[in-house]
Predict the structure.
Amino acid sequence: MIPETEAPAVKPVKRKGKVSTLVGVTSAVVLALSVVLGYHFLRVRAPAPVQGLVAAEKEAGNQPPRFLHSIIGPVASPLSQPLAVAVDDDGLVYVSDTSNNRIQVFTEDGRWVRKWGAHGKGPGQFDFPYGIAVRDGKVYVADKNNYRIQIFLPDGRFVGMIPPAPRPDARGFIPLNMNVGADGNLYVTSLDHRILVFDKKDSLIKEFGRGGSGKGELAYPNGVAVDETGRIWVADSGNARIQVFSPDAGQVVMTIGGEFVVPRGIVIRGERVWVADPIQQKIRVYDLRGKVRVEFGERGLGDGQLNFPNSLAFDRQGRLYVADRGSNRIAVFGYERQQ
């Protein structure tokens, strides 16, 4: 509206130029007021959806996460070349402390909880512990050079192990990394170019893959993860690519390559697939169609830098845990705001 004090200005009719000028000014004022009122309305009425959208996009992996902190272990038992990390539903962080042949446990904020294991071949002993996963309240550890997977309770008590396979005619395996699918099955990569799948009773129900560089063939596969449609994503490390298999593992439905040197750790959260390349010191984030959305990382030992990142895991809050082997730590990233 035009202020009342300006009303007399519209009475003269002899000079049309002044009238046109006044109309223009009036229109500008009305437009400006509309913009201001519209902005105020959006600012007051719609902050949650807008902020929620931004947060959702970041959560989905369209923006690189921010470095939060490192987990290095207490002075008395620091981590040494950790190769894998997993987080349970209670927020406990399990780390394969590989060079020390033990497992160390921390809280999400990095406080030390406990450790177990020593070098050897007996129950609870390790020879190069590698992949680690949590299923149904139990901790599974790939005991690579002992050719087995050991199973523990969260407090470190040994409760069993998975032999090479329940069938007498089955081949042995050399477990590397592992992950639990939405179906509850345990997916394990083996150094002999295979993927093995174990059901909830720890019985081998499927295996696929053979050495080579052709479609469906594998060379030292490392990371493995299953997306929401049941497709199996395999970090085909020796072939510098990701191969995505159908849920029944009968065919390759997608191949991603060209940007990797040695892809290793792989984890899926929602509609984003996170892949670590330790040689490039990078982590790349893909959508489920195989399109890269973001990448981050540079070599170094400082905050936010990476030095041979090997394995990835998420906690319940959406924080990313990176087993950064060369820096002897777990690097934690997330989208939390600075306080």
